[in-house]
Amino acid sequence: MKEIYINYIAERLMVKAWQVENCADMFAEGDTIPFISRYRKEKTGGMDDAEVAEVKHYVDVFDEMEKRKETILKTIQEAGALTDELKGRITDCVSSTELEDLYLPYRPKRRTRATAARELGLEPLADVMWNVRTRDPYVSAKSYVKGSPLMKSAGKPGAEDVEAALAGARDIIAERLSETQTVRENLRAIYRGRRVVASVTKAGKESQEASKYRTYFDFSMPLSRVPSYNLLAILRAEKEGFLSVSVDADAEKCCNKIYYDFCQEHSYPSGELAEQIKTAVADAYKRLLDPSISSEIIKEAKEKADIESIKVFGENLRQLLLGAPVGQKRTMAIDPGFRNGCKIACLDEQGGLLYHTIIFPHPPQNEKVKAIVDVQEMLEKYGIQAVAIGNGTASRETVDFMSRVQLPEGCKVWTVSEDGASIYSASEVARKEFPDEDVTVRGAVSIGRRLMDPLAELVKIDPKNLGVGQYQHDVDQNLLKEKLDNTVESCVNAVGVNLNTASPYLLSYVSGIGEALAANIVSYRAENGGFKSRSELKKVPRLGGKAFEQCAGFLRIRGAENPLDNSAVHPESYHIVDSMARDLGVRTRELVGNAELCFRIKAEDYVTEEAGLPTINDILKELVKPGLDPREQASEFSFADDIHSIEDLKVGMELPGIVTNITAFGAFVDIGLHDNGLVHVSQMGPRGVDPTRVVKLHQQVKVSVIGVDLDRGRISLRLIN
Question: How many Å apart are CA 123 and CA 115, to the nearest integer?
Fold first, then answer.
């Protein structure tokens, strides 16, 4: 990678150039983000996976920029306009905006007013005026009218008259001004400091659908201060035709700046020429620059808003995926409902379906007694150890119903998010898993598996369908996918994957594997039984040395002959652990998990050129608690017993709740009602606090009711803890 790119990335991410260069080299060699951040800390200076992912993003951006530069240079070269200076400026460019500005004068364009003027033969007149080489443009223009000797000799038709010749010359000048890099960049600076204005359109006034955007009718705010969620909402309303959006730049100030930039470059025109140039400037601004720069600046602001929103989405997804699992327990999963009943699925310890049925404990059937008997029998027959209830319609009522059932000793009831369960139940993934069951059964199974292991189940669902973001359909979809894929991959590899039980969907997110190799691993496992060692992975078809290097450290084999195969110690470092054990006079098996022995080891004694102190310290940390799951353990929760509808709420009430979604403007909290309450960011703590740093998804919190809007079904809350 070019040094200019490396230095740019390093400065942007506030890291050292050598860290960026090493990361770029490893990416080129096929190393993945999780592998680099976990097992190559000496080369990265200890960068975490989020920082390595940022470097990867910019490396990809600059790879694409290099391809774009090749196309641009080729186009300008073919036009015969490529100079050494221009080539150097393009080659050294690190800004896509600057690159496109440099290319703009040479980019093939549709027919314009300036094109028509050139066809008439008026470009030499524009040159004379552009370079301030005439005192009287009217006199100069006479040579460019139809039938003049100059036009005849040039073989051009010329303009109808002097006024038309000057108008054509101004069109050419206006286009040149609009394509001048300095002019464009200076205008951008002005626009960035202005206000964004949203005005309601006729469609907005006439449509009831526009009412949801009423907050933004006649909206005006400095562009630099508009919150990301406000801007995305405004732009969505514009896309739907309810609002028109613009930047309120001062036209007079902008035209004066353009004229000043022209004079700085070409010297000051005087007299009639000055008036002609000013007229061209006004035209350039109104017709060409204002629409272009306004769109650019709004797009630029949206890109920033996208990044902020995607960051929140990614953090929410991380918290959701790393939700506390209850582990391998026989589970009763209940997808609650009223008229259509509650769908029940009983699962074994691995999430396999044992039995399913439907009960009707709620209106209109009200078969409570029969439902209690049926549930009681299932609990005993299938040895149920945990109950998972979806948090959708009739969830609260189903939790109340289960409180009347006598649960086995140690069995607890949990409420589980249903977001995305219906998407999963109708997906190809679900059809492959349960080809003989309908969507209701698949949905219930998914709810139960989410309780057992959220990560293993949720990786089967497109993250956009998990209900943990804001305006996910309005942001840059490529950037969103990149962020979410990185987040899922990071979570999967942080936890580690059981090689002998993981689904192909979970395996596909393991570093270096992907869908094809995941399918091969599962097929090999089905034909040969469980893997007995990590090294056996090399027998899987098409899983070569590079893939093994990338994935081995993230895969776990319980009960393996070598205990390191069930740890995060990479096979490339097994010899280091063996050496540590020999020096202590014990076997490797005796060292793994023995904190007392591990604390006697001096990390410095095992540092080599290949394995530095960060690697040795990671090995020792892993040896103390091998294969430790970084996720918290699930804890019980119950809503307030006396709150069943929004009418029961009173200002000042303090209630338990669960965080269901986090946005830039606050967090939504489930307090056991149909509608979630909102804890606005202003009710979370000091001004300017980041909600993602205050609460976490599915966190149990205590809130105070500060407002109830019965008409709109809105609940305002304040965070207590």
Answer: 9
- pLDDT for residue 70: 97
What is the reported pLDDT for 466? Answer: 84
In terms of average pLDDT, the best of 281-290, 308-317, 403-412, 461-470 is 281-290
- Residue 689: predicted pLDDT: 84
Q: What is the mean pLDDT of residues 545-566?
A: 97
Per the CB < 8 A criterion, the answer to whether 322 and 456 are in contact is: no
Tokens of 657: 């709740």
- Calculate the alpha carbon distances from 475 to 347, 397, 529, 568, 664 in Å: 38, 37, 45, 36, 14
What pLDDT does 233 receive? 92
Q: How far is CA 170 from CA 143, 159, 251, 270, in A?
A: 16, 13, 19, 16
Count of other CB atoms within 10 angstroms of residue 499: 26
Task: With a cut of 90, say whether residue 116 has pLDDT above it.
Answer: yes
Tokens of 647: 């009418």
> Once rounded to an integer, what is the mean pLDDT over residues 487-497?
96
Strand 386-390, strand 331-335: pairing: parallel
Would you list the DSSP string of 368-418? HHHHHHHHHHHHHHTT--EEEEESSTTHHHHHHHHTTS-PPTT-EEEEE--
DSSP string, 109-159: ----HHHHHHHTT-HHHHHHHHTT--S-HHHHHGGGBTT-HHHHHHT---B
CB of 442 within 8 A of CB of 351?
no
Tokens of 77: 């070269």
| Residue at 70: amino acid letter | E
667 forms beta bridges with 662, 679
Instruction: Give residue 686's pLDDT.
Output: 82
Query: What is the rounded CA–CA span in Å between residue 718 and residue 703?
Result: 5
Q: What is the C-alpha separation between 377 and 372, in angstroms, rounded?
A: 9
Whether residue 471 has pLDDT greater than 80: no
Instruction: Say if residues 623 and 579 touch (Cβ distance below 8 Å).
Output: no
Q: What is the mean pLDDT of residues 206-229?
A: 89
Cα(341)–Cα(323) distance, integer angstroms: 28
Give the C-alpha separation, 454 to 317, whole Å: 11
Query: For residue 390, what are the β-bridge partners?
Result: 416
